[in-house]
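During the reporting period the student researcher (J.K.) took over the structure-prediction task from the postdoctoral fellow and processed the backlog of single-chain submissions. One of the processed entries is reproduced below for the supervisory committee.
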Amino acid sequence: MAEIAEGGGGDHGKGKKRAKKSSTKVDMTPMVDLAFLLLTFFVLTSTFSKPKVMSLVYPAKLTEEELKALKPPRINNAITFLLSEDEIFYYTGEYFSKSKPGPNGPTKLIETDFGSKGVRKVLADGNSYVLSGKEKLDGKLEKKQIQDSTYLNLLSELKKNKLALKVLIKTDDKATCKNFIDLIDELKIAEIGVIAPVDILSSELELLKQNSKNK
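J.K. obtained the following structure tokens:
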């Protein structure tokens, strides 16, 4: 609503006439109501972003005696990463100590890094089942053959499959938080479904010290 108030003008001597001046006043009251209506509309229709989290599997806390007597579980299609300061090692499958070697002898650690041919390639090769399945699902989602909810459910089932890669993370007292976070990021990129930070065994710690350059 606008109000127009007229003022001034008229004759000012010697018969000369001037144009009448006018002032404009805009009533902003209706705009306040409109602003509240728009604010209410956007609040009710907006979708707030949800925090993205990664689920980690934490085992029960064991005592030192229980850890010493603990037998490594039988693991299929799994990789165990061992972190120490600025170094990162890994081994695949079950762990076999020198006192109880496996079919191919005791476990040997393989050193790697966060380069292009390091952790990311190891995870991509080991988790090819999930990554290839995800690529097919991405194509279906792009062509709108499946809905978002269906896509997420199918991807979750892929990660739970026995053919999907499982990852165990173990650290010594020299491991850095940065390397741990970098490794978690790589696991997220590789679509690893089962991630378990677990305590390192004494025999694994000894093997890690033997392979570490920072003795």
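The committee noted the following: The chain has seven helices and nine strands.
J.K. will present the remaining backlog at the next meeting.
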